[in-house]
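Render this sequence as a predicted structure.
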Amino acid sequence: MAPLPFLLEEYIIKTDEKINKCNVKVYCKPCIKSLGDIEGRKNWFPNKKDRIIAHFKKCKNFLNETTPEKREEIFNLQNNNNTNNNNLNINKRKETSFTSETSSSKVIIRSSSYGVMDNYIVRPLSVADMKKFHTLLLQLSLSCGWAFNWINKPETEELFTFLNPFLKLPDRRLLGGRILNEAVNDSNSWMIKNLQEDQIGVTVTFDGWTNVRNEHIMGIVIITSEGHPYVWKAIDISSEHETHIEVMEKTNTILEELNNNSIKVCALVTDSAGAYAASRRRLRISKKSIVFFPCFAHQLNLCVGEVFKESTEFKTTLDKAIRLASFFRNSNNKFFISKLKEIQYEEYNKESTIVSPGETRWNSYYYVCTSLIKTQKALHSDKARLHEVIQGLAYIIQIWNNFSDEYLAAKLIARIERRWKEWEQPILILSCILHPEYRLKLFNNRNINYVTKGSWLGYYYHVWTGKHATSILKELDNYRLEVYPFDSITWNQFNNDIYRYWCFLSASTNELGFVACRIFGICVNAASVERLWSCMGFIHSNRRNRLSISKVLNMSKLRADITYNHRRQEKTPIVTVQTIIAELESLKYNETLQDNTIDNTINNTIDNTDLTDNENFEVIDSSQESEEEIDEDTNSGDFGNYLQEWISMLEDETETFIDLEENENEELENIIHPAINANAKWELLSLFKELNSPL
């Protein structure tokens, strides 16, 4: 028997008592020292280095007696021994060969030619390893957007043969067939389990889309109260009429299907198309336990369209801007482009692209559009909470109220107020009141107080639970007085996560916590459906237009999970209403400084440093010249068509509003609902105080 290393001799007690011909009993010295001679000698082991080190790794007494450096030095004795044994086996091993058969070739691998790497590539995979390997191949294909035939390429086979000759790659039919179906089935089971465990309730969002084969698809995405989106299904409705009757039938079918799967629904969000708006207004009467909302991102999109509809000056200004920019990017106008570059270099010592026309009011319109776009960007996420919605609308109203053109501002404010009137206002106002950072601080209307809103809390508790509230007002009063746990110290520990804050408080509140969790568990955004269309469009391209809808949906489900995990892992800053205001105020401040230092003739150009929010315009390098020909008539025509499509959406929505108002008295005469109750309507312009900039 080889002698033990000196490092081990210090912590063991050897005896003469033999276990067999070669080994004797050994005791742990730290155990005897700590437990005593009798108890410490109850645990013995042979005088083998690996057995002694194995005991030391799990011995608390040894850990207490030694330093981390000493333990690492002792434990490395075992690792060094394993390495030496492996090297010895390699030196003793004769040159051997084996074959690895794949679908198209036979590769002979000689172990001696691969050196040390041969120790790791020759292990065959178990059944569980192969399933994991197939799943990783599928995820790689979907994440990169590769067609499944990449798996059959000779280069792919050569790569994986080099990594492990025992790996047998599936062909494209197996990867896009059984492996894909098994992965989707596992994903669906996990999805249903998570949705069933959401006790607050999920938000159902759906929207329509036309794919590359001109098939009209309706997609359904479900968002948990924590904000996790799941793709439920996509249905081909090309052969069906899209009226509010058909939308109502499909909505009822979806809700019934979710109910059969024991999934609780608390809200339903759709876009602002006429059929969806009409179905929302009818369904919210028959299903009071579910809150029906339009998608806020779509609402802001329509707000931007209303600017073009009301202001012919704005439309003309943008049209001229596009024509001017197109003129100086058309290679047929090289003479004028070169003259422009010379003048720019004389004036600014650099060259830049023209991004604004010469009208004096362009900058003010630019700020308005930028604010709307930034607000939409902030809320174009999977979980736009209700308090973000009402603050976003209030900030848009504030911008127009301070606008220089009072006539245009009045018309646009009236349009936004009309759009705001269609929302279920009490629940949005409650979302601000129940936010510990805001409470009643933002409101300017004296009618907004804890007493008046307490009745609406009782209403929502009743329709959501079927019970009458017994203690919700008392709990609301404790919240008003900021009694623990409603105090600011508790709130500051949740890092602005309002949903988790109320989930924590629900354990100490019988009724108020339930209502608050439900309110802040609603995600008023259909952005997840738009991401589904983006996924399906990415996969179902012109080159892959033969794919069936079911297969595209299965691939999109898995790819949506992958992209969602990527978004969660990215450390992006949180965009809030306050950060939007800060960016806008900074933008205005920089523009004021620029106006004070640049002549009026320079106002038609803009430096590249001011183009952080407009990626379509770039500074032209003096050493390069764009050879891309741009037809100014085509550009202006495309822009005009886009505006006309925008205006048509608004007119369609207006006609829907008129039809609904005509039928409202007939169908809803004796029904009181927060969305149509005249006593539950407030003007957005006078509802809030001025939103202060954080600067």
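Summary. The chain has a mean pLDDT of 75. The first strand starts at residue 12 and ends at 18.
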